[in-house]
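Hello,

I think I submitted the NAP job twice by accident. Can you confirm which output corresponds to this input? Input:
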Amino acid sequence: MYDVIIIGGGIAGLTAAVYARRANLTALVLEGVVCGGQIINSPEVDNYPARPHVSGVELITDVQKQAEEFGAEIVYAHAESYDLTGPVKRVVTNKGEYEGKAVIIANGANHRKLTCPGVDQFSGRGVSYCATCDGAFFRNRAVAVVGGGNTAFEDAIFLAGLCSKVYLVNRRAQFRAEPKLVRQLESRENAVIMTPYVPEEIVGDKRVSGFKVKNTETGEVTELPVSGVFTAVGMIPDNGAFKDILTLDEGGYIVTDDNCKTSVPGVFAAGDTRSKTLRQLVTAAADGALAASAAASYINDME
Ligand code: NAP
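Support: Only one job matched these inputs. Its output is below.
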């Protein structure tokens, strides 16, 4: 039996592993495919202390190395079901069952999908959720990016370096993105920022050939001649498996106290999966530290 089982190998989970090992706890990190979570799609992270301009992959590789050097075990398996209420916590994965005294849930969040016609039909055929992964397929072509947050602007700036034209489509005239990113995109000659426009339909034959967007003030529909639609409209948590076990907020995020304790003793939540106001790398890392320290106190009190 492990002291702590950590669900998810993003920045929150890996930081929790570092702190768990420093508290001399045995720590297992369960990660589906590859460590890193959302941040592996960020080519440049400017707001992580002491690491200006670091890439997401570089940053996460370093944290993973640190966790492994400190003795955390990483197993690549999908957690499928949970028995979390007793003193022994059980996590069933596609590669077997694991037991722990405490569990830290750091499973992040998934991409929110658009709801207009064409989204599912053209998924992987022009509709993408990852500019850094798929951008090269659209070299010298026109593409659209939907969203007005940091991700949308980072994606649009990255794509402007590859594509003939980039339309950034946002439903409001205001942006959630940092002003610096907005200015960077505005300065690109091949970028067009379209507000307030909402997605109406993604059209094409075998692949995307156009994207209809509607101006919410005038009602006018415009078809953008694009071969790619990159979606960057935020994330939604994947906490369905916990809905009957833990308290979730109205958005499906896990409710915790300031120390990342959930409503069930011995179960903690860290990072984007947790109900909180600021979802950033630095707050995810801080959550990982808090959750592991709280888990250490919980295990100490048990023994
Ligand atoms: P976000 O900040 O939540 O922005 C989501 C954007 O999508 C908003 O413009 C939102 O519009 C729009 N949107 C939401 N649902 C929509 C829908 N159904 N149809 C059309 N538009 C929709 O999400 P994010 O950009 O993924 O960022 C998530 C978090 O990660 C943020 O805290 C962000 O700062 C952080 N992040 C940081 C970095 C970095 O520091 N380098 C990079 C990436 C992300 P409204 O504004 O109208 O709601």
